[in-house]
């Protein structure tokens, strides 16, 4: 038995395209599923619509349940044809014609005689969704809407006002149904205290509720300027903002950025785009000296450092500061200290030999290195304070030579130094009026052979002259004090020297954080960013800039931060860097420029200034930080 399947396709011109193919066997299936021998692509055709089979010389057509075919407009489910009969049936838009070509061979002609079905969207929904078997959308929607209002508004409000009483031993918290999500772990202690934040019913959380707990957070800027600096939202965000303001929620609220009831997500927003929204085109909205910073890689100004302009005439004076862009001509740090880094880092010479001499006691190597003086604090961000007693005195001793023992002069107290030197030589005249030859300098014309005999007046005058001479030598430019400090010359005829105070800045970048500990990786060394080996002046500012720059004379280029750091989405070899990696938002004025080093005796007794060696300054009661 054989079937000949003839596929007839009509062209727009009226010509027919006829393709014949033979199917051996005595059964053919018809339907929309692709496994059928006769595939009819139309939604009105069932997946398995009907089966055609041969029994002897007779041809039978049987439709699947629910999928009839039509003959002359009437639905049929069965058809039988004898040899010599012809018939045409309709299956959806397709016409199937049957005729016996020869004994045992039937030809089935397939032709689309109706245009392709163009069902409306609602007809498609009815066929392929549950719409045809369930209620319409409107009634369930209204039922759900009214039910939600009843359960989640009417019932909680009625319970709150006592209209629905609770049993004596029953605790019901119906307003928890209004929670949009769980609290963050930071606010987990407020889980049962909704009123701590929501201070008024049906009102947004205002800033006053936030600052009751977070009262020590600094403002990023003045609130008025913050509001003006935010660009006006557009599109859907603009509509939402306008709607919020209509219901009393002002812009610039804490809750704009810190959104609760989203678990731990959304409480602290870290995306750099939020910073760039305001710091792009800032001059168009407010009057400011800030430059735009929308991208660290492509749109970020050079760094600005806070430097000491004048350290003050005395320790009691306030130093003055200025903030200067690195790379400008007037970058100079007037610390009041003389310190040549290059001399101390030489690998040969007197400093290196002294380091070798002290290596067993202090752990120095063949020469001094940065770590011998500069050590990171416990946080790995800043460095510990440089102090004379801890960092310098092992090499720069303040000893007053004596035949019997060594006396140490106090550091940072020039008045006491002068008094101690005078007292030392006055005491020597009392204890030994005549010193052995050579212990005291002789005046021109004195006998070189000084014998031990009482000469009170001469000895006293000689001792005081030597004391004044020693004071002048100590405060001279190359003396014990003048080598490192700026000495204020005394009035004529006196030796009342004074020292200009030393002010060392602990944090040059007051609006940024730099993690030194995190940069202790790979082949990075101190020299990679700081050219101390070539710095002969303490006024040099040895900070890297954002771009690679030429270094000091004798050195090479100093790499800038952009050599390694990119934007938030940068990939290797660059390190992805977000705004919050360096900057904080609620830092206020940020870390202090200088940690407290000195205190003033405020008791009214006129006591002298003294150094405070504490790490962050443990200020005595009544003292004022300078």
Automatic annotation (TrEMBL):
Extent of Basic and acidic residues compositional bias: 439-458
Annotated Tetrahaem cytochrome domain residues: 187-280
Cofactor field: heme c
Entry's Gene Ontology molecular function annotations: metal ion binding; oxidoreductase activity
Positions in coiled-coil regions: none
Disordered as annotated region, ranges: 436-458
A Pfam family: Cytochrom_c3_2
Source organism, top-level taxon: Bacteria
CDD domains assigned: Cytochrom_C3 (cd08168)
Signal sequence segment: none
Record-annotated Cytochrome c7-like domain positions: 513-583
Subcellular location: Cell envelope
Residues passing through the membrane, by range: 142-164
UniProt keywords, alphabetically: Electron transport, Heme, Iron, Membrane, Metal-binding, Signal, Transmembrane, Transmembrane helix, Transport
Entry GO CC: cell envelope
Protein name: Uncharacterized protein
Organism field: Parvularcula marina
């Amino acid at each position: 038995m054989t079937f000949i399947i003839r596929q007839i396709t009509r062209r727009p011109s009226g010509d027919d395209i006829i393709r014949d193919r033979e199917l051996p066997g005595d059964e053919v299936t018809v339907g929309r599923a692709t496994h059928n021998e006769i595939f009819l692509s139309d939604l009105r055709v069932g997946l398995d619509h009907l089966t055609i089979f041969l029994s002897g010389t007779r041809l039978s057509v049987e439709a699947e349940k629910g999928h009839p075919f039509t003959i002359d407009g009437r639905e049929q489910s069965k058809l039988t044809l004898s040899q010599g009969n012809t018939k045409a049936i309709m299956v959806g838009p397709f016409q199937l014609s049957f005729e016996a070509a020869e004994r045992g061979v039937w030809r089935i002609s397939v032709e689309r005689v109706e245009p392709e079905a163009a069902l409306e969207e609602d007809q498609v929904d009815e066929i392929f969704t549950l719409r045809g078997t369930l209620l319409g959308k409107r009634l369930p929607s209204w039922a759900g809407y009214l039910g939600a209002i009843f359960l989640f508004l009417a019932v909680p409000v009625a319970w709150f006002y006592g209209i629905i009483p609770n049993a004596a031993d029953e605790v019901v918290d119906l307003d928890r149904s209004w929670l949009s999500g769980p609290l963050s772990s930071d606010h987990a202690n407020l889980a049962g205290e909704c009123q701590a934040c929501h201070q008024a019913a049906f009102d947004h959380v205002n800033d006053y509720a936030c600052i009751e707990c977070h009262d020590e957070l600094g403002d990023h800027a003045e609130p008025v300027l913050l509001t003006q600096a935010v660009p006006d939202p557009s599109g859907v965000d603009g509509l939402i903002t306008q709607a919020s303001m209509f219901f009393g929620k002002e812009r610039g609220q804490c809750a704009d950025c810190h959104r609760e009831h989203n678990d731990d997500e959304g409480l602290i927003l870290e995306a750099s785009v939020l910073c760039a929204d305001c710091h792009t085109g800032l001059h168009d909205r407010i009057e400011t000296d800030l430059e735009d910073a929308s991208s660290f890689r492509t749109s970020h100004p050079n760094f600005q450092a806070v430097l000491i302009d004048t350290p003050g005439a005395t320790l009691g004076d306030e130093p003055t500061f200025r903030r200067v862009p690195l790379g400008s001509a007037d970058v100079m740090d007037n610390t009041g200290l003389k310190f040549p880094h290059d001399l101390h880092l030489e690998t040969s010479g007197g400093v290196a030999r002294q380091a070798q001499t002290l290596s067993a006691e202090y752990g120095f190597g063949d020469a001094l290195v940065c770590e011998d003086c500069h050590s990171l604090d416990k946080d790995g961000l800043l460095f510990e304070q440089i102090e004379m007693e801890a960092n310098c005195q092992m090499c720069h001793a303040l000893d007053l030579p004596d035949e019997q023992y060594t006396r140490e002069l106090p550091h940072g107290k020039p008045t006491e130094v002068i008094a101690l030197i005078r007292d030392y030589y006055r005491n020597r005249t009392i204890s030994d009026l005549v010193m052995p030859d050579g212990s005291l300098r002789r005046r021109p014309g004195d006998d070189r052979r000084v014998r031990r005999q009482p000469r009170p007046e001469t000895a006293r005058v000689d001792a005081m002259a030597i004391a004044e001479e020693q004071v002048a030598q100590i405060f001279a430019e190359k003396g014990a004090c003048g080598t490192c400090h700026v000495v204020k010359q005394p009035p004529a005829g006196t030796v009342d020297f004074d020292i200009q105070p030393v002010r060392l800045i602990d944090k040059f970048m007051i609006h940024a954080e730099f993690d030194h500990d995190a940069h202790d990786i790979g082949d990075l060394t101190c020299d990679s960013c700081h050219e101390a080996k070539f710095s002969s002046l303490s006024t040099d500012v040895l900070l890297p800039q954002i771009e690679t720059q030429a270094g000091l004379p004798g050195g090479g280029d100093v790499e800038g931060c952009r050599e390694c750091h990119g934007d938030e989405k940068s990939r290797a070899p660059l390190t992805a860097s977000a705004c919050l990696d360096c900057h904080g938002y609620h830092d206020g004025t940020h870390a202090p420029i200088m940690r407290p080093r000195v205190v003033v005796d405020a008791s009214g007794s006129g006591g002298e200034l003294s150094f405070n060696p504490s790490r962050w300054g443990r200020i005595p009661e009544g003292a004022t930080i300078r």
